[in-house]
Amino acid sequence: MPMNNQEQKTYTFHVHGMHCNACVLMTENELKDLPNITHVKSSLHNHSVEVVGDFGNKTPEQIAEELSVPLKPHGYTVSVEKQIAAKNWADFTIAVPIALAFAVLFVVLQKAGLVNLVNTGSVTYATAFFIGIIASLSTCMAVVGGLVLSMSATFAKEGDTVKPQLLFHAGRIVSFFIFGGIIGAIGAAFTLNTAMTVTLNILIGIVMLILGINLLDVFPWAKKLQPAMPKFIAKHAHGISKFNHTLTPMLVGIATFFLPCGFTQSMQLYALSTGSFLAGSLTMLAFALGTLPILALVSFSSLGIKNHKQSGVFFKAAGLIVIMFALFNLINSLVIIGAISPIFNF
């Protein structure tokens, strides 16, 4: 039954737990499905959400509590008053030693010649796989986890829980391989010269640096710098999960390639710089395989690292490691163009 426009009111609430553009997409898509809401617009800049709808005689506090219900499973809460998020600097006392231990292990493995994570400014498959692991645990991938849970709930009502999950992950892995190759082939078509390749590598390093700083969760200004997929593409990708069809899980898996995750976009940039269908496809495949273990746990058991009591330590340690990768990439790119002398001899 259509609402009387006179009964509709506009409210603005604070949203706690927002970290990236994926959070904007997630909050909007979850709230717009509520029956008494006609318009939703989230803002990462203000960590807020504006809703238009008919809430009767409910107070703003009651409305905020009602809006929190569908968002809490994804790690968000809505309130009238703005809460100052704790930066938890104490987490660094554990995160820094973890990151340093990883750096030492990294150097040891490089010296031993067992792996080659950084090589003249390039991103190898081992790097892509590791970044995939971090991406699957980061808040940037929250929207993918939300897609999985939404799809799971839809099909679970019909008693089918395993097949949709398998189709989702198969669609995701295959699409990352194919689209990664296409991006690589596009790079070849443009015949990237050394300057353009180095420029892309520097851009990748900057994107990863921003992602790493955001994972630290102590510099709110960095969230404004994070790149995002055009919103209309991401919204269509998310909307696929609402259709209940046998092939829907596979389509959702394919759509995740276009969702607003900065880690995915940094790997897509690198795939473009390879100028090769095979190199691009294998890079994106390695990244997708890195995300597989955690996303599989999310889909089958609703695991959420961001809600764990030690999540702050994990994200800060992961952020420091990502920053390390970014700096390696940036430094080696500058070495290639002769801007600085070689710093690392492995």
UniProtKB/TrEMBL annotation:
<feature type="transmembrane region" description="Helical">
    <location>
        <begin position="277"/>
        <end position="305"/>
    </location>
</feature>
<dbReference type="InterPro" id="IPR036163">
    <property type="entry name" value="HMA_dom_sf"/>
</dbReference>
<dbReference type="InterPro" id="IPR006121">
    <property type="entry name" value="HMA_dom"/>
</dbReference>
<feature type="transmembrane region" description="Helical">
    <location>
        <begin position="243"/>
        <end position="265"/>
    </location>
</feature>
<dbReference type="Pfam" id="PF13386">
    <property type="entry name" value="DsbD_2"/>
</dbReference>
<keyword id="KW-1133">Transmembrane helix</keyword>
<feature type="transmembrane region" description="Helical">
    <location>
        <begin position="170"/>
        <end position="192"/>
    </location>
</feature>
<dbReference type="Pfam" id="PF00403">
    <property type="entry name" value="HMA"/>
</dbReference>
<feature type="transmembrane region" description="Helical">
    <location>
        <begin position="317"/>
        <end position="344"/>
    </location>
</feature>
<feature type="domain" description="HMA">
    <location>
        <begin position="9"/>
        <end position="75"/>
    </location>
</feature>
<feature type="transmembrane region" description="Helical">
    <location>
        <begin position="89"/>
        <end position="109"/>
    </location>
</feature>
<keyword id="KW-0472">Membrane</keyword>
<keyword id="KW-0812">Transmembrane</keyword>
<feature type="transmembrane region" description="Helical">
    <location>
        <begin position="129"/>
        <end position="149"/>
    </location>
</feature>
<dbReference type="GO" id="GO:0046872">
    <property type="term" value="F:metal ion binding"/>
</dbReference>
<dbReference type="InterPro" id="IPR039447">
    <property type="entry name" value="UreH-like_TM_dom"/>
</dbReference>
<feature type="transmembrane region" description="Helical">
    <location>
        <begin position="198"/>
        <end position="222"/>
    </location>
</feature>
<protein>
    <recommendedName>
        <fullName>HMA domain-containing protein</fullName>
    </recommendedName>
</protein>
